[in-house]
Amino acid sequence: MDSLLRVGLKTHKRAERLAGYERFLGWRYLLRAHRKPRTFKVGLALVTLGALGLWGSAVARSHSAELATWWMGSAETGGDWDTARFSLQYTIEQASQLVQGGGLALTVIGVCVALFGGLYWFMTTFSAFSTFMIAMGVAEVILVLGVMNGFQGYLRSKLVDANAHIMIEPPRSARWL
Fold it and tell me: Positive or negative CA dihedral for 14, 16, 18, 20?
């Protein structure tokens, strides 16, 4: 009986120790003391790079003629010079379109990463991911509703203004049909 009591007492202490350890792990997981905003900072860096790309492409596009003249090193006019300058100006405009697309993509990705990083900074991984996915779903619904609302007038005009091949109208002088 005494040995049975000792075994029971040992298991009870072990259970208390495990419960304390599990409680400690749970609270440490739920409320981390030192959260590092690395993901948030990476998102902000991507937004900044994207904004710089958008700004650079706008500057290059607005000053493509001056850039082509500067690159050629001369403001001479003539057949071959004009052709080369226009070709270079077209190339600069194409490159600025590529940079603009890349800047826009970096900005959008950066906003998403910064949003997730901000949530992860204050929440656990699972809570942050769930909240982020709910935010993305709501944003998608708002975007689709906005686009469809913009096309509503166009769609109605196409449906209502549909004319048949043959139209039967009453004579203009008649009161009734």
Answer: negative
Query: One-letter amino acid identity for 144?
Result: V
Domain hosting residue 130, numbered range: 125-156
The secondary structure of 84-140, three-state, reads HHHHHHHHHHHHHHHHHHHHHHHHHHHHHHHHHHHHHHHCCHHHHHHHHHHHHHHHH
pLDDT digits (tens, 9 = 90+) for 83-116: 776 777 778 788 888 989 999 999 999 999 999 8
Angle 148-151-155 from CA coordinates, rounded to 5°: 115
Residues 51 and 111 in one domain: yes
CA distances from 66 to 86, 88, 132 (A): 11, 11, 45
Q: Who has greater pLDDT, 8 or 79?
A: 79
Looking at residue 22, its pLDDT comes to: 56
Residue 147 domain-assigned (yes or no): yes
For 66, counting Cβ atoms within 10 Å of its Cβ (0-12 exposed, 13-18 middle, 19+ buried), the class is: exposed
Q: Examine the domain organization and report whether 82 and 149 are in the same domain.
A: no
